[in-house]
Specification:
CATH superfamily of the largest domain: Amidase signature (AS) domain
Distance between the termini: 19 Å
Number of helices: 15
Number of domains: 2
CATH class of the largest domain: Alpha Beta
Strand content: 5-15%
Helix content: 25-40%
Number of strands: 11
Radius of gyration: 20 Å
CATH topology of the largest domain: Amidase signature (AS) enzymes
Oligomer: single chain
Order of helices and strands: HHEHEHEHEHEEHHEHEHHHHEHEEH
Strand order of the largest sheet: 1-3-2-4-6-5-10-11-9-7-8
Length: about 450
């Protein structure tokens, strides 16, 4: 079998029937890491021997779980008892958690091989990381899940886990040309993950195809009473829904967004071409004036909550915080509780508006980012994602377009809250029904 071109499920089946092994899979990806990591810089902590040790232990067992023997990269804000978790900051250098995060626990239970910890920006926030875009090393992979997106794009692992508070799953997935999925808030537990905003933080995933996105999300989702965003209502399998026949094509809306003046010429041209190809399958609407307020509310909540979440680092370790971040933290401290409470009310209004919207439509289509990846030194503009981080809606990046320089431009599809399986199904229909080709 050709490991690089197989889905996760096919690889697990090959391991189960003896045509491959966990060790062979790990060695395949480890060889790619050895050949290209010096250029990409996706890994904060990587241990080939430990990965092979995990693989050999799994080879002694019958393959029965969904990720048996599958290598996974884990953003370095998820606690891992086997690796340091340093949050992208010298303040937490050599920090060794005693316990795994909920996601780490579920990955192990599903039989995954945790290859290591992928690079994150400082506190999963603003300051760019050292990771480079695998498509062109002069360009950024985005932030803050830079290492996770780049690791999948570079072929270092088939799967990786990241997080999004503003645009840190969808935007790097767009820049790196991979599938990236930010599920509904609460679908995946945040226990044992660096908190920067209890209202806005989400766990997300990266993969090379929709099926792998579904398999990984199913493996790590579930109710966790330790996370105040987690919900206990029944959850359908994303894998099952992905392949289920649908009675009709989805009703998808394109909004002329209030920030469309920030789209690059390349992005505008690419989306004009896509919309022309999709034709009547897309409904065009003017964005409500309230959308501008949703963007402002996201910033107010983020400012207010990150200062409190990182109180120890800011109060006791100020000298070890990057100079580029200090002015942002200083400005954030000026946020009043009244502004914060008002922003939370706007968030509830936004959630109510989208609840009504999804009574008539199935999904929204927008750019994942305003442009191709910028040059190194910037993580890019997150504006295309922030409104949906505010509202907690599920979003997926589809790597469908390219700019004039050949760098990827992602297409974002946004679904109804807690209807994640349907969103992936709508994404599959959009691609299949219109003969769209992915750039992965």
């Amino acid at each position: 079998m050709s490991i690089a071109n197989e889905t996760v499920t096919a690889t697990v089946e090959a391991i189960a029937n003896g045509s491959s092994s966990c060790a062979a899979v790990v060695n395949h990806y480890s060889d790619i890491i050895a050949a290209t990591e010096s250029k990409v810089g996706a890994w904060e902590h990587y241990d080939r021997d430990f990965a092979l040790q995990q693989a050999n232990a799994l080879d002694s067992k019958k393959a029965h779980s969904s990720l048996h023997g599958i290598p996974v990269g884990l953003k370095d804000i998820f606690d891992t008892a086997d690796f340091p978790t340093e949050h992208g900051s010298p303040i937490h250098k050599s920090r060794q958690p005693a316990k795994d995060s909920a996601v780490t626990e579920k990955l192990k239970a599903a039989g995954a091989v945790i290859m290591g910890k992928t690079v994150t920006t400082e506190f999963a926030f603003f300051n760019p990381s050292r990771t480079r875009n695998p498509h062109n090393e002069a360009y950024s992979p985005g932030g803050s899940s830079s290492g996770s997106a780049a690791a999948v794009a570079a072929g270092h692992v088939p799967l990786a886990v990241g997080s999004q508070t503003g645009g840190s799953v969808i935007r790097p997935a767009s820049f790196c040309g991979v599938f990236g999925f930010k599920p509904s808030r609460g679908l995946i537990s945040r226990r044992g993950v660096l908190e920067t905003s209890t209202t806005l933080d989400h766990v997300g995933v990266f993969a090379r195809n929709l099926e792998d996105i579904a398999v990984l999300t199913d493996a790590i989702s579930g109710y966790d009473p330790a996370d105040n965003a987690s919900y206990s209502e029944p959850r359908d399998s994303l894998v099952k829904q992905l392949h289920a026949p649908q009675a009709r094509p989805p009703s998808i809306v394109w909004f002329d967004m209030p920030y469309s003046d920030r789209y690059s010429d390349d992005a505008t041209a690419a989306f004009d071409g896509l919309l022309a190809k999709l034709g009547d399958a897309i409904i065009h609407k003017e964005a409500p004036a309230a959308f501008r307020g949703y963007l402002d509310a996201h910033k107010a909540i983020y400012d207010y909550e990150i200062i409190r979440a990182l109180d120890d680092e800011i109060t006791n370790h100020w000298d070890n915080i990057s100079e580029s971040v200090k002015p942002i933290f200083k400005a954030a401290k000026e946020r009043s509780e009244a502004e914060y409470r008002e922003a939370l009310q706007v968030r509830e209004s936004a959630r109510a508006w989208f609840e009504q919207f999804y009574e008539q439509h199935d999904a929204m289509l927008t750019p994942s980012a305003v442009a191709e990846a910028p040059l190194m030194g910037s993580t890019g503009d997150p504006v295309c994602c922030t409104m949906f981080s505010l509202t907690g809606l599920p979003c997926i990046n589809l790597p469908l377009l390219k700019g004039s320089s050949g760098l990827p431009i992602g297409v974002q599809l946004i679904g109804k809250d807690r209807q994640d399986p349907l969103l992936l199904s709508h994404a599959r229909q959009l691609i299949d029904n219109h003969g769209l080709s992915t750039t992965t």
